[in-house]
Amino acid sequence: MTVTPIMRIGRIGVWASPRTLGEQGGEAAALVEQLGYAVFWLGGSPRLSTVRPLLEATERLTIATGIVNVWQNEPAQLAAEHAELVSEFPGRLLVGLGIGHPEATSVYSKPLTTMREFLDGLDAADPPILRDERCLAALGPKMLDLSAERSLGAIPYFTPVEHTRSARERLGAGPLLAPELACVVDTDAERARAKARDYAALYLGLRNYTNNLLRSGFTEQDIADGGSDRLIDAVVPQGTAQDIAAIARAHLDAGADHVCLQPVGPAGVPRDEWAGLAAALIS
Questions:
Q1: What CA–CA distance (Å, rounded) separates 250 from 235?
Q2: 185-209 pLDDT, tens per residue?
Q3: Least enclosed by CB within 10 Å: which of 74, 111, 185, 256?
Q4: How many domains would you assign to the chain?
């Protein structure tokens, strides 16, 4: 009998987009594994096949998608791509699924129903993508509930520590809670906050995120005009690697099982930032 390896999640991973990595995805994944991170989250809306070079370049690192967009994929095809990859790299692929944003697709409607139907399709596929091989991008209460009911758990994005605390209360013990944490590793406070605000600009124009920030205690005034300092500092912390590590630990203390670190600002692979954060959190 073949025993499926247990997926390695650990407490700290990194998050990077294909736009940042360019053609260096495999090299970047190998560095992430060498530094001791447990998971490499490939951001954006990647096709599942794009994780292959990352899997091939590493030996034990879990590769996760953040996120496969359900509007751009069919469950049966996604399950077939997943089956091919896990046959070669067992226990190392976590499929993060997400509904995306109404501003990004003309077909966006009934997000909760659409996600349920997509999960039904994954369950019906032959072979299926099993519940503990998938997780959901979840912010609001109902999607958090669905992540607990139908997947390994939730991967919130662009959220403060307060959201992690409330999400854990909503999920209860057991389901994975793995918030993404964008950050700027830079000791020049003015420059670092400017980088954080530049990064946040896109997300402050997407109502799924802004509605969630309002639920998390921020105001319309915090969201307006590029975001208040209070909001920017809470969602995209800045400072030394040790400063960022303190915020990551705050998420863990608030109930996160895993934190996905995303240094923003540098062009290309953020080698120095990953190394500094690993020294502060893993070594």
A1: 12
A2: 999 999 999 999 999 999 999 999 9
A3: 74
A4: 1
Question: Does 158 fall in a domain?
Answer: yes
The reply to whether the predicted model has a pTM over 0.90 is: yes
Whether residue 141 is contained in a domain is answered as yes
For residues 124 and 153, what is the distance between their CA atoms, to the nearest angstrom?
20
The reply to whether 252 falls in a domain is yes
**What stretches of the chain adopt beta strand conformation (E)?**
12-16, 39-43, 62-66, 68-69, 93-98, 134-136, 153-154, 176-177, 180-185, 238-239, 259-263
**Running DSSP on this structure, what letter comes out for residue 72?**
G
Convert the pLDDT of each residue in 104-154 to its tens digit: 777 888 999 999 999 999 999 999 999 999 999 999 999 999 999 999 999
Would 5 be classed as within a structural domain?
Answer: no
Q: Under 8 Å CB-to-CB from 180, ≥6 apart: which residues?
A: 15, 41, 66, 155, 156, 157, 158, 159, 259, 260, 262
Structure tokens at 263: 């240094």
CATH number for position 79: 3.20.20.30
Structural domain including 183 reads 12-281
β-pair partners for 81:
none
Q: Are 114 and 83 in contact (CB under 8 A)?
A: no
Spatial contact of 85 and 53, defined as CB atoms under 8 Å apart: no
3-state secondary structure of 126: coil
